[in-house]
Write a structure and sequence with these properties.
The complex is a heterodimer.
Chain A: E1 2-4, H1 9-18, E2 23-25, H2 31-36, E3 44-47, E4 57-60, E5 63-67, H3 72-79, H4 84-91, H5 96-101, H6 104-110, H7 118-123, E6 127-132, E7 135-140, H8 141-144, E8 145-147, E9 150-151, E10 158-165, E11 171-176, E12 187-194, E13 199-205, H9 215-224, H10 235-248, H11 259-281
Parallel strand pairs in A: 1-3, 2-3
Antiparallel strand pairs in A: 4-5, 5-10, 6-7, 6-10, 8-9, 11-12, 12-13
Helix pairs in contact in A: 3-4, 9-10, 10-11
Chain B: E1 3-7, E2 10-14, H1 23-30, E3 49-52, E4 55-58, E5 71-73, H2 82-90, H3 99-112, H4 118-124, H5 136-146
Parallel strand pairs in B: 1-5
Antiparallel strand pairs in B: 1-2, 3-4, 3-5
Helix pairs in contact in B: 2-5
The chains are: A alpha+beta, B alpha+beta.
Keywords (chain A): FAD, Flavoprotein, Oxidoreductase
Domain FAD-binding PCMH-type (chain A): 1-169
Protein name (chain A): Carbon-monoxide dehydrogenase medium subunit
């Protein structure tokens, strides 16, 4: 096995082009588990931990561009006010040790249906910035995942960053698990209400082959919310929203829970997230 | 491959390192520092917790080459002090396997927060599993060390 250790982004892209079967590693919280358990023996590891631009974030108007290598801890500490939904999800990732190392870019690269960062990125209509020696392209998160642990990432591409509009309020994230820490989601749900644009974004985790949006639920809420006077959400609207979110999922029975439980739990999470997010805007 | 890093203040070198092996393996098997424990090898248990450039991490999830040129502090490199004394005097050590990781995690918590609340303690130690104590004595130890 080779250990490729670029120190610049150009070197990293050149290395990936020359070694398309090299596995990128940043925080190592997914890749090292596979190596430790002999589940994977790639011909090379491509260590991205020395590529400084990956650990930077910046603003472009009201858009944020966050490098793929920014760890969850920094998402919480530095971006909690601008990306509240993602920060809520980041707080539920693993443990302090895992949040010190794990990155959103790694979460996207692993493309697990249970990735905690995915629902809030979906709800916020984020874009993933992919790069190779051929150039840069931006892919909406919604189009990024193609199946369990599969994405549109080409063999010569690396995840450079994600781009998302700052929110400050109106975002929520909720996750079901057996305890607060060290839990792979049984199911999760993210909601983003934008009172200025009057848009609703949703993201469902761990309840379909990929993270998915609940588009019918979004359209229903856009029409039903009292955007002008911001009156309370009628219970019937919240219940119907929960039903539509559950209907958008395609869960399976597995060791973490049954499909029926996941559907039920999603309807509850969606209803609660709606009330919390709306109250936060009133 | 060869890996050079600073461990507990000393320049160390490990040879014949397989690029897929972990920092934990390098510390225990190549550098003779068995304080960091090898249990789950998947970042669940925290018993291999070390400081990497001042940040607590699971050394089982750091690729050996990622430690090249970095600064590592293991439980062996922490001065014996209030944290270890508090673990001893409160009975927070039973089989002892989780203790090195917990000592590093508590050392970090108290360096960041001298007077942690109980929720702060629980959050800081959420990544360290203990199968003996039921955690109550460990919480006592942190409260005592913080006093």
């Amino acid at each position: 096995m080779d250990f490729l250790q670029p120190s610049t982004w150009d070197e990293a892209l050149a290395a990936k082009a020359a070694h398309p079967d090299a596995v990128p590693i940043a925080g190592g919280t997914d890749v090292m588990v596979e190596l430790n358990f002999d589940r994977r023996r790639p011909p090379a590891l491509l260590d991205l931990s020395r590529v400084a631009p990956l650990t930077e974030w910046g603003t472009d108007g009201d858009m944020l561009r966050v490098g793929a290598g920014v760890p969850y801890r920094r998402i919480i500490e530095e971006l909690g006010g601008r990306l509240p939904g993602l920060a809520m999800a980041a707080r539920t990732v693993g443990s302090p040790q895992i949040r010190n190392r794990g990155t959103v870019g790694g979460n996207l690269g692993s493309a697990s249906p249970a990735g905690d960062a995915h629902p809030p990125l979906l709800a916020a209509r984020a874009e993933v910035e992919l790069a190779s020696v051929r150039g840069v392209r931006r892919v909406p998160v919604e189009s990024f995942f193609t199946g369990p642990k599969r994405s549109v990432l080409a063999p010569d591409e690396l995840i450079a960053a994600f781009r998302v509009r700052t929110a400050r309020a109106g975002e929520q994230f909720a996750k079901i698990g057996t305890r607060n820490a060290m839990v792979i989601a049984v199911c999760s749900f993210a909601l983003a209400l934008d009172p200025v644009r009057r848009t609703v974004g949703t993201g469902i985790g761990s309840a379909a082959p990929t993270p998915v949006r609940a588009t019918a639920a979004e359209a229903f809420l856009v029409a039903e919310l009292d955007w002008d006077s911001r009156g309370a959400v009628p219970p019937g609207v919240a219940a119907e929203f929960g039903r539509l979110v559950a209907a958008a999922a395609a869960p399976i029975d597995d060791v973490r829970g049954t499909a029926a439980y996941r559907r039920h739990a999603l309807s509850v999470l969606a209803r609660r997230a709606l009330v919390w997010a709306w109250e936060g805007l009133r | 491959m060869r890996v050079n890093c600073t461990v507990n203040g000393e320049k160390r070198q490990a040879d014949d390192v397989w690029p897929g092996e972990s920092l934990l393996y390098v510390l225990r098997e190549r550098l003779g520092l068995p304080g960091s424990k090898n249990a789950c090898e998947q970042g669940e248990c925290g018993s291999c917790t070390v400081y990497l450039d001042g940040t607590p991490v699971c050394s089982c999830l750091v690729a050996a080459g990622q430690a090249e040129g970095r600064d590592v502090v293991t439980v062996e490199g922490l001065e014996f002090g209030r944290v270890q004394e508090a673990f001893l005097s409160t009975g927070a050590v039973q089989c002892g396997f989780c203790t090195p990781g917990l000592v590093v995690a508590v050392h970090d918590l108290l360096a960041r927060n001298e007077r942690p609340s109980d929720p702060d303690i629980r959050e800081a130690l959420a990544g360290n599993l203990c199968r003996c104590t039921g955690y109550e004595k460990i919480l006592d130890a942190v409260r005592l060390a913080a006093r």
